[in-house]
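Example record used in the benchmark description.
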Amino acid sequence: MSRTSFHFTSESVSEGHPDKVSDRISDTIVDLFLSKDPEARVACETLTTTNRVVLAGEIRGKGIWENGGWAPGIEAEIEKVVRAAVRDIGYEQDGFHWERLTFSNYLHGQSADIAVGVDATETKDEGAGDQGIMFGYASNETPELMPATLAYSHRILRRLAELRHGGEKRLEPDAKSQVTLFYENGRPVRATSIVVSTQHAKGLSQADVTALVKPVVEDILPEGFITPETVWHINPTGVFEIGGPDGDSGLTGRKIIVDTYGGAAPHGGGAFSGKDPTKVDRSAAYACRYLAKNVVAAGLADRCTIQLSYAIGVAEPQSIHVDLHGTGRISEEVLERELPALIGGATPRAIRRHLGLNKPIYARTAAYGHFGREPEADGGFSWERTDLVDRLKALA
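Model output (structure tokens):
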């Protein structure tokens, strides 16, 4: 029997966290290449450290990498968009500055062995870019159908970033948050612990930072969630002046719990950032979230987890699994049978077509979660649409 009363915690990290700086740079490269060739292949990893950015990975595309080398002018464009991404985050510090950092580019052409398995031909559909398992999840505990602990952790850091970009000079880019909620009868009812650590300008005391942060948290959490018993830890080490890649190195793909569901649901082993949408690590995970969100939005369950699995070079998924966690108002077997058809099949090509993924829409996903966001007019966060609701209701 599952527990209905318990504590649960999720964390988030800001756009200025060193790993998120790396994610942002990698997804900026994905966007640059997709803007030149919607069928570009990209697997870009980024290392950030004190005043240094290093790119590595495999790429292919028209106007990008042709005949065994870079297309004219593209290397300069790559460096330009990398520096612009760092500047946009807000890094103009002695230890990490968008203009003064050393940039190294070790991207190279995609392996022919991978390409032959993935590319479509006259006799076979486009195959998955790798084997793997992907998960999607939705819960009706928040309006965006996300776990409440993660939703509030993201919102706290987004608000602090908005203040910083709006001119609050006492805040610096690197920050982390963590929210612990008590669930009663399966629903979140109060916050038992709040942790926020934020990089700040020199000379600020812990009390100064608390005075900045605490009102933000109190405004974001629902009325009544903060109680006299709520435990607060704001900059618990006392001083956080050295941060970002100068304080700790960053790597693409090290914050996949933050990117997904905050630990409230399973997730696949592959990161999203730096990968074009032929990589099912990214596109199939988006499809799983899309389907799970629509199931919950249709009122067919309070919670829904969906798994897809793939083999490299093979178009059709190896399996689909639906778990409604005992809250379903429809058979899980029915959903497993019917859901793929709602998106034209669960092949990599069908997913990309249905969600419109071959667009430069990925840099915006790199911080504050890939899920629980608003779908945008240009196709960004298309996997957050709830346009399958009516068709799903008809299945019940």
